[in-house]
Design goal:
Elements: H1 12-20, E1 32-33, H2 45-56, H3 70-84, H4 90-93, E2 94-97, H5 100-111, E3 122-125, H6 131-139, E4 143-146, E5 149-150, E6 156-157, H7 164-169, E7 170-176, H8 188-201, E8 204-208, H9 224-230, E9 239-244, H10 245-249, E10 257-261, H11 263-276, H12 282-292, H13 296-317, E11 330-334, H14 339-350, E12 352-353, E13 355-356, E14 373-377, H15 382-397
Parallel strand pairs: 1-12, 3-4, 3-7, 7-8, 8-9
Antiparallel strand pairs: 2-10, 5-6, 9-10, 11-14, 13-14
Helix pairs in contact: 2-12, 3-12, 5-6, 5-11, 13-15
Length: 407
């Protein structure tokens, strides 16, 4: 057995099931889950039609190429030109992937190698974070190093606190913007800081941008390649971004996304994927082209989230500390008490599931930044999310000392 497997921690939802074991939720309430970030808005008809048309044709009659059809890569390049105003070459700077989760993990296995001179090989990660970053680091034989976050800055990362010895041993940096769970978007100055560090120490930056199309401000979130281009880094040296249709187009079951950036890294990743057997189904490719070529359904989807968050957020703000994120479909709320106890008791009393914030972070530098927080995924229809919010309000108001929750 791979000895690194024993280092993997239980996934947050496994821990949640264990937390709820033996708890009987109040049967007076129908269950509502805000725990898992799985989009539940309707899949656009144009995507389903393209999928069915491809199946009816010859879409399953041959092995797909690992690099994907040029038509798919070109549709992605065209979308990036419209969305970010940048030129990305379809032949050698873009690869289709089976969802960003698969690609983020596999990319680390491509990048990571033995540390020089017997030193530590580090993968630098945000904290709180998406657990795939940690697993990818551990199974790649590296040590995850979790960057402290700043609650007063919507859990932005404190890059200046990372020791020089860690940067010197870093091979890979994971960035998530818009962030999961707090929804912060990195500004250009922060990207400039990271690019300078990458140039100095030679590590690769992997930018997870799967929430980029669900945003609440007038300006769309800045992307990694977009930031690089604005700073004159048009070769995207040591930089790869990852995106997905799952959230953008409400097709999590289709498992379709892409990565793009440094052509040399793309060539290496393609070689890895050829051996890994990661080619995307031709049927999924056809449906993906239809999705990337259309923006109307994305605008409608974003409008649904904006309406939902505009109604739910003020309701919850009456009892707990929570604010509208820059982007994403999560609310990251401070409960003022133990987050596991809050989630368990809420489930028992009102049959609403939320995720304890400590499950999305690690104790580092003597502190788990998720302690006392909960993550709520507002992925269901507005009425269901509002019902869940109203139950949470009643739950908090019924606690022994509800006033302490706003301290």
């Amino acid at each position: 057995m791979n000895p690194h497997l024993s280092q993997l921690q239980a996934y947050p939802f496994e821990r949640l099931r264990a937390l709820f074991a033996g708890v009987t939720p109040n049967p007076a309430y129908t269950p509502i889950s805000l725990g898992i970030g799985e989009p539940r808005h309707a899949t656009p008809e144009l995507i389903k039609a393209a999928f069915c048309e491809a199946i009816a044709g010859t879409g399953l009659a041959s092995y797909p190429a690992t690099a994907g059809e040029l038509a798919l890569r070109q549709s992605i390049a065209d979308w990036m030109a419209r969305r970010y105003g940048i030129a990305v070459r379809a032949p050698d700077q873009i690869l289709p992937v089976n969802g960003s989760r698969e690609a983020l993990f596999a990319f680390a296995q491509t990048v990571l190698g033995p540390a020089a001179n017997g030193q530590h090989s580090y993968v630098v990660c945000p904290n709180p974070f998406y657990q795939i970053y940690e697993g990818a680091a551990l199974l790649g034989g590296a040590t995850p190093w979790f960057v402290p976050s700043v609650p007063q800055r919507n859990f932005a990362q404190d890059w200046a606190s990372v020791p020089e010895s860690v940067w010197a041993g870093a091979q890979l940096l994971f960035v998530c913007s818009p962030g999961n769970p707090a929804g912060a978007v990195m500004p250009l100055a922060e990207w400039e800081q990271l690019f300078a560090l990458s140039d100095r120490y030679g590590f690769v930056i992997a930018s997870d941008e799967c929430y980029s199309e669900i945003y609440f401000r007038d300006t769309p979130p800045l992307g990694a390649l977009q930031a690089a281009a604005q700073l004159g880094r048009t070769d995207f040296k040591n930089l790869v971004m990852f995106s997905s249709l799952s959230k953008r187009s409400n097709v999590p079951g289709m498992r379709s996304g892409f990565c793009a950036g440094d052509a040399a890294l793309m060539a290496a990743f393609l070689r890895y994927r050829t051996y890994h057997g990661s080619a995307m189904s031709p049927v999924v490719q056809s449906a993906s082209i239809a999705a990337w070529n259309d923006e109307t359904h994305v605008q409608l989807n974003r409008a649904l989230y904006r309406q939902k968050f505009a109604q739910v957020t003020p309701l919850l703000q009456s009892v707990i500390q929570v604010q509208l994120p820059d982007a994403g479909f999560y609310l990251w709320a401070h409960t003022g008490e133990n987050d596991e106890a809050f989630a368990r008791d809420l489930y028992a009393a009102y049959n609403v599931t939320v995720l304890p914030g400590s499950y999305l972070a690690r104790s580092a530098q003597g502190h788990n930044p998720g302690d006392g927080y909960i993550r709520m995924a507002l992925v269901a229809e507005t009425a269901e999310c509002l019902e869940a919010a109203q139950r949470i309000v009643s739950f908090v108001q019924g606690r022994t000392s509800p006033a302490t929750l706003n301290n």
